[in-house]
Structure formats: structure tokens, C-alpha cells
TrEMBL record:
Family: Belongs to the PNP/MTAP phosphorylase family.
Keywords: Glycosyltransferase, Transferase
Residue ranges of domain Nucleoside phosphorylase in the record: 23-269
GO MF entries: purine-nucleoside phosphorylase activity
GO cellular component, one term: cytoplasm
Function: The purine nucleoside phosphorylases catalyze the phosphorolytic breakdown of the N-glycosidic bond in the beta-(deoxy)ribonucleoside molecules, with the formation of the corresponding free purine bases and pentose-1-phosphate.
SUPFAM superfamilies from the UniProt entry: Purine and uridine phosphorylases (SSF53167)
Listed EC numbers: 2.4.2.1
PANTHER family referenced in this protein's UniProt entry, alphabetically: METHYLTHIOADENOSINE/PURINE NUCLEOSIDE PHOSPHORYLASE, PURINE NUCLEOSIDE PHOSPHORYLASE-RELATED
InterPro entries hit by this protein: Nucleoside_phosphorylase_d, Nucleoside_phosphorylase_sf, Pur_Nuc_Pase_Ino/Guo-sp, Purine_phosphorylase
Protein name stated in the entry: Purine nucleoside phosphorylase
């Protein structure tokens, strides 16, 4: 990755009308309805943006969408990239660097995750307070990283405290149950074994997924305040583990998403 490549990606998007967005949003698996809230949308398909990772079949509709939500300019990633698709950490996080270069001042991230904490249930939303990186690498581990920011990025408080406080107040006001906890990020795409779920609980994870952490690391590298939520789509009880049903996971994510959208929209108004 070079600054020249980033500049070319950004120039392409600016020419399409992506003009100084304030907030970047990354949508997770089964969480695409937020795009319906965007007013005056301008779309850019990933495959057309210079140096963007090429979308796989699963994400052939992957695109960046620019427009307005709750009176603020946003740029939304519909479809993200994962390690399990064969991308590397630089591919996965390239869109975050592009959105930052476009001008975003805040980043929202969502994902679908499994509940390790068994007091949390399917359909709950969990505000991520901290994370455990179990993906075996870092998006900052490349030779010329110092051209883009400090090599040794601080991660003492990776998720913005001010936005977390605000979204908790919004959830209370809107009567939306909002759990809080630690998100563990694994490679996937296989789901975890019973022993792995027990390990994750011992490590202190409340939820597990296959994304988010690389984007959060890069956001911190760019000193970009970030807020992240997990929609909990299954309960990972090693003593009563059932075979996974991907269709059910996507359905639960879709059913819970309106609450997440409400939280995001109200947060956009007050930041």
C-alpha cells in the first residue's frame, strides 16, 4: 500500500461526489438495511474503485454509499472484507484508510457475533468495550507503516468513551436493551468447537466473531474515534451446542437491525 494508491482511490470517489463525509459506517453480515436510511445516495462499487480489494462472489454487490443520515454526511460500507475470504489485513482495512482520507471524523462498525456470555441472548445488541485479537496478525505489520502513522499504536482505550456514553443514554431513552462486553475476533470461517467456546470464556470474551478488530486497530492508528456494536445472533453454550444455521443467523441479524439503526441514527444526531 502506498500513499499514491490511497490518493487515486480518494480522487475517484471525490469525482463521483463523495464530498467531505463526517461519519464512516461499516455494516456487518446481515446488517444492510441501514442503507435504506441514506438520503440522496451516491454509489461506488468496490470493483470500480482503484486499488480497492476485488469483491468476491459473496460481495459482488459490495459498494460504498455516500449520502445523508439525520442531517449529516456519511459514507457507508455495504459489505466488508474478511480474512476467511483470503484477503490480507491491508486489504481488509484499506477502506478505513480511504474513508479517513475522504474526511470522516468518526467511525461506526457493526457485526454479527455469537454470545459467549450466556446471560446474553439471541437478538441482543452488545456495545463493544474492548476486544481480544485472535486473528494471528496485525494490519499495522508492514514495512512502510510509519508513513501512515505511529508504528506502535496505543490501544489502551480502542473504543471511544464519549460515543459509548452517548449511545448508552440513547438506548435507555429509547428503551432498547444494550449489553456491554468484550469481543473476540477469530479467523473463521469455521465456527468454534465446544473446547474453543470454553477457552474464549476463560479468556474473558463476551462475544465472538470474524471481523471488526482489524478495522478498529487501523482506526486507532489514524486516531479516528470508533464505536462498535455486535448483533448477537446465536448462543454459544458448549454444554448444549447445536449445529449452526447460517440462515437463522442472518434472519436474527435482520430482525434486530432496526434497533441498531435507531441507535445509530440518534447517535449521529448528537455527535
Amino acid at each position: 500500500m502506498t500513499k499514491k494508491q490511497l490518493d487515486e482511490s480518494v480522487d475517484y470517489l471525490k469525482k463521483k461526489g463523495f464530498d467531505n463525509p463526517e461519519i464512516g459506517i461499516v455494516l456487518g453480515t446481515g446488517l444492510g438495511q441501514l442503507v435504506d436510511e441514506i438520503q440522496d445516495p451516491i454509489e461506488a462499487h468496490y470493483n470500480h474503485i482503484p486499488y480497492f480489494p476485488l469483491a468476491t462472489v459473496e460481495f459482488h454487490t459490495g459498494k460504498l454509499i455516500y449520502g445523508t443520515i439525520a442531517g449529516k454526511k456519511v459514507v457507508v460500507m455495504q459489505g466488508r472484507f474478511h480474512l476467511y475470504e483470503g484477503y490480507d489485513f491491508l486489504d481488509i482495512t484499506y477502506p478505513i484508510r480511504v474513508m479517513h482520507q475522504l474526511g470522516i471524523k468518526k467511525l461506526f462498525v457493526s457485526n454479527a457475533a455469537g454470545a459467549i456470555n450466556l446471560s446474553y441472548k439471541k437478538g441482543d445488541i452488545m456495545l463493544i468495550e474492548d476486544h481480544i485479537n485472535l486473528q494471528g496478525g496485525s494490519p499495522l505489520a508492514f514495512k512502510n507503516v510509519a508513513e501512515f502513522g505511529d508504528r506502535f499504536a496505543d490501544m489502551s482505550e480502542p473504543y471511544d468513551l464519549d460515543m459509548r456514553t452517548k449511545i448508552e443514554a440513547i438506548a435507555q431513552k429509547e428503551d432498547i436493551s444494550l449489553q456491554k462486553g468484550v469481543y473476540a475476533s477469530v479467523v473463521g470461517p469455521q465456527l468454534e468447537t465446544k473446547a474453543e467456546y470454553r477457552m474464549l470464556k476463560i479468556l474473558g470474551a463476551d462475544a465472538v466473531g470474524m471481523s471488526t478488530v482489524p478495522e478498529v486497530i487501523v482506526a486507532n492508528h489514524l486516531r479516528l474515534p470508533i464505536l462498535a456494536v455486535s448483533v448477537l445472533t446465536d448462543e454459544c453454550d458448549p454444554d448444549n451446542l447445536q449445529p449452526v444455521n447460517i440462515q437463522e443467523i442472518i434472519e436474527i441479524a435482520g430482525n434486530t437491525e432496526p434497533k441498531m439503526i435507531q441507535l445509530f441514527k440518534e447517535l449521529i444526531k448528537v455527535i
